[in-house]
Amino acid sequence: MCWWQARRCSRVVRSPIRDLTARISRRSGPRPRQRLADGLNLVFDLDGTLIDSAPQIHAAANIVFANKGLPPFSEVTVRGFIGNGVEVLVGRLLAHQGIEAKPKLQAELVQSFINIYEEAFDLTRLYPFVTTTLSALCDAGHRLAICTNKPEGPTRAVLSHFDLAQVFPVIIGGDTLPRRKPDPAPLRAALAALGPGKALFVGDSEVDAETAQRAGVPLALFTGGYRKAAADSLGARLIFDDHAALPRLIAHCAARL
Fold this sequence. Notes:
By secondary structure, the protein is α/β, with parallel strands linked by helices. The chain has helices at 9-12, 15-28, 54-67, 75-81, 86-96, 103-117, 130-139, 152-161, 185-194, 206-215, 246-254, and strands at residues 5-7, 41-44, 51-52, 125-126, 143-147, 170-172, 197-203, 219-222, 238-240. Helix 3 (54-67) crosses helix 6 (103-117). The model is unreliable at 1-18 and 28-36 (pLDDT under 50).
């Protein structure tokens, strides 16, 4: 049974998002060239879906907290707090150490984290076959976007680091809109910027599952990311553990539309 659900952006995106779409298009450069008629709108999460950034986030967090005279964290602890954006990450780390997240302290830690994180990506890696998979999806006529809770600046920096910036003409970061995932607005904005068409959101976590459900968009769940719950409990229409298989799985489903 085919599980795709067509979503016309004009039905789900209100005027402020359409205005944002125009700004995104101007900032991102020319819109993608005309694709095949059956090309899909594929929106990807970033951390835990395309890249494993947990070691880099762990290192940056420990530097930031050490600069404040605070003790370090294990990578397991930091990995468990990833997914809701930098502000939430810092708040969770403070709570883990029993420290009140006072606004001034949290703001300083967040900005320091972003500054450090943008400077180096030597501990961040792409998941296997991501580059070839994205290339194959583009060649098949699909339109690609990013929707992540990572701030837009670091998002663009890490994509450029891996020579992937040109693959995604639309990028929605955690600070692009006033709201972030699991609010459906960022995903809807990404789809509106891509244009009309059937859609799929590719993510790895409970946050991504809730975002997809609230936006009314089918979810493809990558099992190698930062998810804590059982994969089959998140309502995904497609579950995969190997990026190399994704183009074939998408083509198999799209042919049944």
